[in-house]
Amino acid sequence: MNQLHVVLGASGAMGKAVVAELTRRNLPMRQVERSVSVRGATYVAADLLKEADAVAAIEGASHVYVCVGIPYAAAVWAREWPIVMQNVISAAERAKAVVVFFDNMYMYGPSPLQNPIREDHPQSPESKKGKVRKMIADMLLAEHANGRVKAVIGRSADFYGPGARNSLLYITVLDRMLKGKNPQWLGPVDVPHSFAYTLDNGRALVTLALDEGAYGSVWHLPVATPTPTVAQMIEKISRELTKTFTVSVMPPLMMRLLAPFIPPLKEASEMVFQVRDPYVFSDAKFRARYPDFATTSLDDGIAAMVADLRK
């Protein structure tokens, strides 16, 4: 079968990671963004809220990677994600393309989460954003089950790496440290917290895409082991920056008081349970199927992230 890999959200950190792996494998691709600043045969602009745009962007595809970033607001997610997913499914059905969905773990609940967090974790999300993620993942898996499209879901822990400016680690920790400020965290720093490296995620998504036996299922993407604490991650970043920092933790009361006045904090506050308690991600299912898959060490991943974000 002739292959054409279409990356939706190609300009984001995860889209770039998938593009890097497709390039390494010399697989033909099309990069899709809402607006295209770089012109070339592989770049296409599309508004995925419009079905016609989605159909045009995915036409001729064998595989479609959904790495789309939608503004981090529960109301926007509830309004836009179902439309985007339905348009992608419709376009993929016409093209007979496999849908590869890069997902997060917001749908797991209630809190505290069961550790290690596996693919069979209960899905009773307490957050608005978690309810949206569960809805669209269920939508995609249902369409696979009824034969409308072939699909596979790669679900990631909190990610870090080159370009990962929308990650919690960057927003509250690394961005501040790069500016010479002490980092902040929204929960205790001495509990284990799994992190996935963006380029490992990209390699894993392409691995799943090319394995028909993986379709119709959810796979936790691989993480570095052993699971570090947030304090250990901050210590590694401090060594990379050759400077000592002191981390501060925002008290829950202060978060509740400030949230109504700081939109990003308001949106993050409903997800604070993921940083308040242990967050140990199990990638055992993925590793059992792909035993030769090697993950990037935390030291190497942090070095690459710092180097990229210093540019």
- Spatial sequence of strands, sheet with the most strands: 3-2-1-4-5-6-10
What's the CATH superfamily of the domain at 5-160 and 194-223 and 282-293, by name? NAD(P)-binding Rossmann-like Domain
Structural class designation: alpha/beta
Low-confidence segments, given as residue ranges, are none
Helicity range of the residues? 40-55%
User: What number is the mean pLDDT?
Assistant: 93
Structure commentary:
- With 311 residues, the protein is α/β, with parallel strands linked by helices.
- It has a domain at 5-160 and 194-223 and 282-293: NAD(P)-binding Rossmann-like Domain (Rossmann fold).
- It is 42% helix and 13% strand.
- It has a seven-stranded parallel β-sheet with strand order 3-2-1-4-5-6-10, sandwiched between helices.
- It is globular and about 55 Å long.
- The termini are far apart.
- The mean pLDDT is 93.
Jot down its keywords:
single chain, 311 residues, alpha/beta, two-stranded parallel ribbon, 42% helix, 13% strand, Rossmann fold
Helices and strands in order:
Elements: E1 5-8, H1 13-24, E2 29-33, E3 43-45, H2 51-58, E4 63-66, H3 74-95, E5 98-103, H4 128-145, E6 150-155, E7 159-160, H5 168-178, E8 184-185, E9 196-197, H6 198-209, E10 218-220, H7 230-241, E11 248-249, H8 252-258, H9 263-269, H10 273-276, H11 284-289, H12 298-309
Parallel strand pairs: 1-2, 1-4, 2-3, 4-5, 5-6, 6-10, 7-9, 8-11
Helix pairs in contact: 1-6, 2-3, 3-4, 5-7, 7-12
